[in-house]
Design goal:
Elements: E1 5-9, H1 14-17, H2 21-33, E2 38-42, H3 49-59, E3 62-67, H4 70-75, H5 77-86, E4 91-94, H6 108-124, E5 129-132, H7 147-154, E6 159-161, H8 164-169, H9 174-180, E7 187-190, E8 192-196, E9 199-203, H10 212-221, E10 226-229, H11 239-253
Parallel strand pairs: 1-2, 1-10, 2-3, 3-4, 4-5, 5-6, 7-10
Antiparallel strand pairs: 8-9
Length: 254
């Protein structure tokens, strides 16, 4: 097996891509210039799959994976899968479910049905569907399981896209959780953090408190084929600078 893919979650640099098509294209060129070869999409910026694919091709970036709102699968499952296959995505990810859609909540039965079908169809399309966690999925249900584990336990077709920052914010160990889902966590979100009086703040990967070497070693041993750099909010530098620092660090250990 070759080196794992290092991708940038484009949500990280949303302040540079939100204005218009030209600013998005220019920002993608900057992402490529800093050394990234792949990205994880966070929407399509109102563009058609063909136009966005042309922009990625022009910049030399691969759409390694994509975060796709649950509502897209709910409203047009076949069309959504086809669109992201057009973009060349290897993986699709549900970025989150809202509070009414989680296990134990009023809409879970319908959500479970849709996610099961979507995960099955994504697998058939050779674009596995993953679920990306935050901290709130570590609330316990009446059966004693965490919401996150209930999702994975009851939908065996769906993969895990564990976010190390949010696992840490929930008081859990990223390495242990990656080991728990060995063979089922093909992509890991690398979100480095430091603890503050108000909770946690993001830092460029390698500049926070997480043991990134152990996380990457464990994830690779457990079958991960890609790592996605993500910051919810850069502190003390621009989001592009944080993305650059993260990649420079990762290139020294991957």
């Amino acid at each position: 097996m070759g080196k794992p893919t290092i991708a940038l979650q484009l949500y990280t640099i949303r302040d540079f891509t939100a204005n218009d098509v030209l600013s998005t294209l220019g920002t993608l060129h900057k992402v490529k210039k800093m050394g990234y070869n792949a990205v994880e999409l966070a929407g399509m910026y109102g563009l058609s799959p063909a136009v966005l694919k042309a922009m990625l091709d022009e910049t030399g970036l691969e759409a390694f994976s994509a975060h796709i709102p649950f509502a897209n699968f709910e409203s047009d499952m076949q069309g959504t899968i086809a669109a992201y296959k057009t973009l060349g995505c290897q993986f699709a990810g549900i970025p989150y479910l809202n509070q009414t859609q989680l296990p134990g909540r009023e809409n879970w039965a319908n959500v479970h049905k849709i996610l099961t079908k979507a995960a099955t169809l994504c697998k058939e399309a050779n674009m596995p569907l993953m679920y990306h966690n935050h901290a709130f999925e570590f609330e316990k249900l009446q059966n004693g399981d965490y919401i996150l584990d209930e999702i994975f336990n009851t939908i065996p077709e769906i993969k895990a896209e564990l976010d190390t920052g949010w696992v840490t914010a929930a008081g859990k160990c990223p390495v242990a959780y990656i080991q728990k889902y060995a063979g089922r966590c093909p992509v890991v979100h690398l979100k480095d953090t430091v603890k503050t009086d108000d909770g946690f703040e993001d830092r460029p990967v390698g500049k926070g408190s997480q043991d990134m070497k152990a996380i990457i070693k464990t994830a690779t041993e457990c079958g991960a084929v890609g790592f996605v750099v993500e910051l919810d909010r850069a502190v003390g530098l621009t989001s592009l600078e944080a993305a650059q620092e993260s990649l420079e660090y990762l290139k020294t250990i991957i």
